[in-house]
Amino acid sequence: MPVLTEAAIKDLAGFKSDDDAPVVSCYLDVDGRRQVRAQDYERRLAALVRDASAGPSGALIAKDLELITAHVARGLDRSGVRGLALFSCASKGLWEVVELPVPVASRIVVNQSPAVGSLESIVQELEPLGVLLVDRQRARMFVFQFGELVDRSELFEALPRDYDRRDDAGRGYEREQQHTDELAAQHLRHAAEVAFRLFQDNGFGRLTIGATDEVYAAIEPLLHPYLRERLSPRIGVGAGASEAEVRAAAMLVEQEVERQKEAALVAKLRDALGTGTKGVAGLAATLNALNERRVATLLVSEGYTESGWRCACGALAAKGPTCPLDGQEMQHVDDILHDAVDTALGQGCHVEVCVGNADLDVHGRVGALLRY
Ligand SMILES: [Zn+2]
User: Fold this and answer.
1) Ligand 1: centre distance to CA 32 (Å)
2) What's the gap in Å between 317 CA and the centre of ligand 1?
3) What structural domains and CATH numbers belong to the chain?
4) Most exposed residue of 105, 130, 148, 304, measured as fewest CB within 10 angstroms of its CB?
5) pTM of model > 0.85
6) Would you call 96 helix, strand, or coil by DSSP?
7) 62: phi then psi, degrees, rounded to nearest 5
8) Contact predicate 68/24, CB 8 Å
């Protein structure tokens, strides 16, 4: 499954096995922003595998667990990969690895079909990016999803050759120039149509345009309103760029959009803290809100780690060893933020790891927007 699409997920979800050969679905958080070393997530996987082996289907899934462990141990290229989803049913020939651009709650699920719920929500949230490169004769439209090219369309409408100087002072020149401008305007209308057609096919969330100032100004009003409201910052490549250049520039736009999204959430948190409603900041208060299942969005600064405490009941705390919920003795953990992200994802919260956001750092490097 090279690209995560609704169709690919439906295919996967359609796989049915039986009680004798259950499917192992393994989600693993491999986010390098929080887990710097490979051994961090390998250790987490080993613990999940141990639990699954000890479960009721342990004997039936030994081969699957072995394959999953071996795959992860071979090493991952984590550039752009923050989560991993592995699906295995060795005796029925099922093996799928999906690399995800977002972190996921680490867990192993054993069932008769692949557990694809998390993939569904990721696909819904991460919409494709449309890229339109356009000049007066060419229009090239690309759709990227998770850095992969999923659709493209090219249009070339040649303009008459540059006007012959033979009568460049005469009325003929003016008429021909006007004709060329009309053709170019028609070409831009066609380009806008191509962009809208690919939007209808792929439903991209944002559109970025590569064009000169003049062409940009001309095409912007021609875009369908749905596309105009999805316009992202312009891309710095022209209509003649190579596919690799387009992809690299598209990824920069995605990052910029991501930073803006993070900044908007942190601003929302700051407002919530200011009015004292629906927001908490700092480790202790945030863990408390997670324990109370009040978190809608968890915000964590990239690279923030802190030790803390975890109770068998699932509660998390900055200070131990007594559980705030049931008074049991908690276990000390090296990276409580890992547990916090895991818990938040498990509760269906949105998790945003914020990169270089000084405003969040000021508020204790972690915080949450609350549901109530
Ligand atoms: Zn407890």
Assistant:
1) 29
2) 10
3) 6-125 (3.30.960.10), 129-241 (3.30.420.60), 258-370 (3.30.1330.30)
4) 148
5) no
6) strand
7) -55, -45
8) yes
